[in-house]
Amino acid sequence: MFYRLPETLTDELDALKAATAQAASGEMEESTLDRLRVAWGSYEQRGHGVRMVRVRTPAGAVTPAQLRGMADIAERYGAPCLHVTTRQEFQIHDLRAEDVIAVMEDLKGLELATRGGGGGTVRNVLVSPDAGFARDEVFDPSPHAFALTSRMIADPTSWQLPRKFKISFANGPRDGAYALLNDVGFVATMRDGARGFQVFVAGGAGNKPEIAHVLHDFIAESDVWLVSEAIKRVFSKYGDRENRARARLRFLWSALGEETFRQYYEAEYAGLLQESPAPFVPGPVVPVPDSDPFAGAAEPDEAERLWRSRYVESQRQAGRYSVVVPVPMGNLPNATARRLADFLAPIGDDTVRATFGQNLRLRHIPENRLGALFALLQEEGLPSDRPRLSGEAIACTGAETCKLGICRSKGLLSAILEALEASSLDLDRLGDFHLNVSGCPNACGQHLMADLGFSGGARRQDGVAFPAYTLFAGARAGVGHTRLARSFGRVPARAVPDFVVALLGLWLTRDEAPTEAFGDWVLGEGADEVADLVERYDVAPPFAEDPLFYHDWSADEPFSLKKG
Question: Domain 391-550 belongs to what topology?
């Protein structure tokens, strides 16, 4: 519903099916097939023959019917849940290799595709999760993201890029979509009463992170595709196709320099105009339901009031609310997804979006349905009674399933949250605090965009390896204010939960109530205290003295650097 599938999708799926048959008969190398499948958003997990697929959902938007349909597909092929990613997508894990094509065909029946979910392709287009109802937004860029997606995925050159190409739309300068940390970022703005975008280019949070650079102070909203396509063509022509580690757009910007990059961009833009392309028209805005949101609303009890204070936000539309549904580790059980879909269906089609925190953000919920929603979340065992920090914390899939993972990031995050919730700290005072864990130096867990982030790695003591994490702290988002988290050294994995309790204890129990942001304190007057704390916890006992120290969290075997 939110984007149009390309007319060529059926033929392309047939070609992938034929390639799969060729590999099975020995006519094609398995490695060749794997490269094809990656561009279709299908990756091999740890465990021979087990794969996952990544579903394209721009802005994280799906209809209730699509949410239910994805849960049905996951269950049909043996997956216990839908996985919500940090880029507003859904993944289905634990699939047999022979079922992958069938899953893609079933998703097509829901008007969803996995094409471009991996490899050198145009990836899922992001949008601020509160777009369409935030009180401070300039305007809702969701229709632009949907229209751009439809146009980009219909172009075969979108699948032939040097590496991934990421686009993001923010609904205002607060930059709730991390537009300044993507290859192309559009930030909604106004000029002389006209809607448009400030455009940023060549940002990223992975290897050698970079805050994006201003390409345009203002473009008309009708120019979104022209700008995106011109940048894509520069990337395709001049990006590094030999050295994968330096193949992202930010490396091209650095290699060319701003002046040359702009010259190439302006030439591609002018060339596009000569082609007389079809005009770019943003998609329609899905209307907010017009039913009475107040009729029959009941007074909430104490538990519901606490939940409302943590996870419920009033929208600018009277009587409508946005609700964050915390999804532990991003894993949404199929039965829960179906119940949520059935709850949302009578309210409207644009009522659920995936967030960067691996959660769901429900929208346009009438006040008189909040009580029923709270009861549903309690019945489904979702952590609606936990502090906001616990509900918003992020961990990538880590070494448990990712072939690139070094550490078990999910196991660590569970241990951190357990330690925090067992402490005497008032976690509600932290408010919208971002605690993010990545299982390796790649930024899938968004550790560089966190108030407090951890990136997995390894250390050795007397020749024996153990898991350890680099601490990052102090990130901030916002046009003119974006700041990546700074590294503060490494802490052994087994010491991280106690370290986090101690660090947040320092912050929350200072003589004065916190008035400055945590990140400002960490990078300012608290920097020396943080460094001292890291040094105190960066201690590893001999293996013979404490063998468990050399196990990763949630691992039965001693830590190993073996991948794949």
Answer: Sulfite Reductase Hemoprotein; domain 1 (3.30.413)
